[in-house]
Amino acid sequence: MAHRIEFRDTHISLAHGNGGRMMRELIEQVFVTALANPRLDTHADAVALPIPADRELVVTTDGFTVQPLEFPGGNIGSLAVHGTVNDLAVSGAVPHFITLNVFLEEGLEIALLRRVVDGLAAAARDCGVVVVAGDTKVVPRGDCDGIYLATTGIGFRPHGTHLGMDQVRAGDRILVSGPIGDHGAAVMLARQEFGLYGELRSDAASVLAQAQALMTVAGLRFMRDPTRGGLGTVAHELARATGLGVRLAEASIPITDSVQSICELLGFDPLFLACEGRIVAVVAPEAADAALSALRTVAPRAALVGELGAGAPQVVLDTAFGGQRALDELEDDPLPRIC
Amino acid sequence: MAHRIEFRDTHISLAHGNGGRMMRELIEQVFVTALANPRLDTHADAVALPIPADRELVVTTDGFTVQPLEFPGGNIGSLAVHGTVNDLAVSGAVPHFITLNVFLEEGLEIALLRRVVDGLAAAARDCGVVVVAGDTKVVPRGDCDGIYLATTGIGFRPHGTHLGMDQVRAGDRILVSGPIGDHGAAVMLARQEFGLYGELRSDAASVLAQAQALMTVAGLRFMRDPTRGGLGTVAHELARATGLGVRLAEASIPITDSVQSICELLGFDPLFLACEGRIVAVVAPEAADAALSALRTVAPRAALVGELGAGAPQVVLDTAFGGQRALDELEDDPLPRIC
To answer: What is the ipTM of this complex?
Structure first.
């Protein structure tokens, strides 16, 4: 937008969602000023995007309802970008474009919205993606918890990329790219409902460099970013999809002291806490060393944490004390609204 | 999903959003059973989509917060499909794929959710689109008004399609493909807060056939589906983007008697009521007759309703009584949560 009138409103009202003047000003002055790029045309219903001739189109989508909206290491805006970029990255794609849906609660402070949009814009710049289309809805006070976001990511990958749980075989190894549970623990602390305060930061970040490092390794079968439900849930999904048993070696799983302490204090299992900047990868047994080396060039704390074998499709944990325990699937929600 | 366990829960709980067993069952038993198609893989983070070699990729996105969730002529699910398909259609594209974000309120009746998902699935089948990716979030009771949806649509159009407000010239004519305001009026009545009951149905439907009919006409400049803010808001957007004056002939604008009566009773201006199955098109003056004929093959009540001319970038209404009045831009929200 050419003109730079200062946006005067301090709080969101229903009229910011009605398609009229106030909505136009909100979009121009708050969203477009932060997200401007040559493809973003707020006058258009849809946008045409270029497709590299030698690449395959890959698409993903995610919703975000995290509370609080701001937490150490990010906010709902940067989290939406990282979450979306990461789903493309673990599919072997390089992310290019994002569409953005914003649900706003009447009464929301514009200053907070600006910080969220700025966080989103900064994360998008860091990840090399641009917002190419968007929509904003305003709902009455009490019908939304401040801000919800929904993003769709569009990226491209080489034709013939075969990654997926259907590629996984007995004997394959499981790697994790860094300490688990940081995002879940940081958001939990940021809620302050436990009366705990810490230095913990969310690990929310792009995993594109990690994923691209793994893509160079022959024998890469599958990648996933262990968000909601954490590493434990990815392990269960692997067992269910492959019919294989999953063994995780507890002592090998990287975890920071802070996350470990918080979990012990509050009775959470870090295996089920969300990460937002890690990859779980499955590789052929003979590729495990190469994959770990490749991963460590960009993720020094990456580790080999388990393997898939014959036997019942369960998840078994070899405990640090030399015992074994079955890891049950997550039933109750230990921590809602984590992403 | 292969197994067909009956989904036993009757209401949404927070655990349906936690990434564990209950979320998996909700997705498999409620969403996948209705939306199943070969591209929808709930185990994958992202999906690869085929691109026709001779077409341009076109993307759009929209959020939906309509209240009530069900109304005569549709529900929030079918509305999301029609709204998304229509944004692609007016861009000259044929819609192919949709991504779906669902925000659910704790306590929502599963039976209602099923009706919404069924409405969405039926509309998708009618429109020839498939849901290729999705995400579900559950928020605590009171933090959402039942269901919000966000969809991104992906379609393809011929290379070199030049449609847009930047194509519009002085002298161009404005067409509408049918009676205006039906969606806005129907949703308003469905709220029952006015104590009025009527036969009125939303016009929510795909405009793809209308758009494709117009695409055959040389001299087509611009199309839009006049949703939030209605025809009046599209007229203002045209004036602002082109710097031209917009004249609308009130007597030529198609409107049903029911919508007219409701508006007179309640003091609404039908020009600002949402349509969800209409197109506003701008065509070169010499193409107006051909465009109207083409449009009427699929939209019998299509009409020529105005033109763009030199003069101040305002919207002027030639009234049915031979007078003129300036049509102001929408300020307050006459009817929030209409889409």
So the answer is: 0.92
